[in-house]
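Re: weekly structure request thread

Next one in the queue (320 aa):
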Amino acid sequence: MSHHRLPLGILLACSVVFAATKDALPQPHVVITVKGDVRTIETNAIPNHATGKFPSPGNPNTISAQKLTFTMPVNPKANDKPVKAQGPTTWGVALNGIPFDPNTAEYWNRDRSNGWNEDLMGAVGKLGADQSNAHVQPEGTYHYHAKPVLLIEVLGGDSGRTLLVGYAADGFPIYTANGHKDPKDLKSPIIALKSSYQLKEGNRPSGTAGPGGKYDGKYTIDWQYVAGKGELDEANGRFEVTAEYPKGTYVYHMTDTFPYISRMFKGTPDSSFKKGPSNGGGTRNGGGPGAGGQGGARRGGQQGGQGGGQGGPPSGGAPQ
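Done, posted below.
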């Protein structure tokens, strides 16, 4: 069994069923279990909080129940250097079973090969995102692109404390921006950790080389990593101790500035988070054998846009 504890009564090898939302959505359901060194999260991806109205002018899709199973190591190993997510991959999953999928399927000139991936938080209208920085994939999966505001409220808020909100595909935990000033001391003051990214100076290339205009955050590559600018590394994380991990672990943090949610992996992502030709990540219909299990196929939808300039929309595709 794992050495760390989960918040708000979410215990190992137990079923967690959240209260239904106030709208007409199905009952939210998520089951979190740990067996050996494998954590499994089974979810119908229905949020346990209010959502925006979908379809909406910026997001024409309708929330629907899914059948997703994610597996990841309980004791993940960090690699020497973080790497960008390769191919279409769901980056992580929240404690309430909602996927974290920070990149979009929107590209300049609708060409995912050009690298100009539009960032939801910098996009006009935020591509129809709601109060929790979430919207809906074409096949119906509700997912977060940045800080899940209403989930944080459901978990009791993070004022004056650190707050675990989920796990990345490599198994490392995800917290809100708050962390101890001294990452090795639980008695150290809690501060809002800052990312080490800043906007590039000047203007983007124009013509056939790029969309032109000032670097303003509309595209992910408007940003550049500057080591030491903030407390976090290029994967928006650091090694630290937390209440759940008193012996220390690598931790991802969600920040109020880019990258909001990391676009990289410090460890090796489990293949259950990999998206197939037409699914949004997560093993379907019964799940795989544990860590390393292959993601199953989902009917309908589109391939997600995640990491390294991959996963753009097919012709006529809607935003993710």
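The radius of gyration is 18 Å. The first strand starts at residue 14 and ends at 16.
Next request, please.
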